[in-house]
Amino acid sequence: MLLSRALTHRSASAEHNERLEFLGDAVLQTAVSALLYERFAGSDEGDLTRVRAHLVREDSLHRLALSLGLPEVLSLSEGEARGGGALRPSILADALEALIGATFLDGGFEASRTVVAGLFGETLATTEVDNWSKDAKTELQEWLQARKLSVPAYRIVATRGQAHAQTFDVECGVAALGLIEKGEGRSRRTAEQEAARRMLAVLKSSDRPGGPLQD
């Protein structure tokens, strides 16, 4: 019953997976935190928080859900299925979290921790904290705030492709400097990160001695 509900999208039934997803999100955060605490004994809170954010973000969960074959077993309404819902990153990430929540209810925290360790174990075993730098949006915001400049603004300028395989075009603007950079990606978040990375590259280059920001 728990497995069936975890794999049921709200479009398919009133007995859907959103409550399990809510629970699974909290269990996932706790389980990953415990694994990171053990794996990186010498790292501080900031480092551990940064690595955890990378591991549990939608893009990462989406890839794991695909590797488990969740698109083939999700229950969706006909309309959602026709629109490519079985491949939508947000739907797949939520379903994976719902499965973790179901595992917690069925077998307790140790059972769900074992599942999470199986999902993320290889990544944790082959990486170091230094490999997980701050994401571009965070780094850009901190760069601007350190110079007492307002935070950047992000705007979707175009959306291309069918619903299940869309590409987003996003602009990142820093009004105080009159700068705009563009990025694209399969999700709005990915496109924003790409735009932020490009903006950072421009700003860091310009911030060197002799650059426009130094004149």
3D structure, described in words:
Mean pLDDT is 89; it is low at 208-212. The chain has two domains: 2-131, Ribonuclease iii, N-terminal Endonuclease Domain, Chain A (Orthogonal Bundle); 136-214, Double Stranded RNA Binding Domain (2-Layer Sandwich), CATH 3.30.160. It has 215 residues and is mainly alpha-helical. Helix 2 crosses helix 3 (45-56) and helix 8 (136-146) crosses helix 9 (188-206). It has a three-stranded antiparallel β-sheet, with helices on one face. The protein has nine helices and three strands; from the N terminus they run ααααααααβββα. A hairpin with a 4-residue loop joins strand 2 (167-174) and strand 3 (179-185). The chain has helices spanning 2-6, 18-39, 45-56, 58-67, 78-82, 89-107, 109-125, 136-146, 188-206; strands spanning 153-160, 167-174, 179-185.
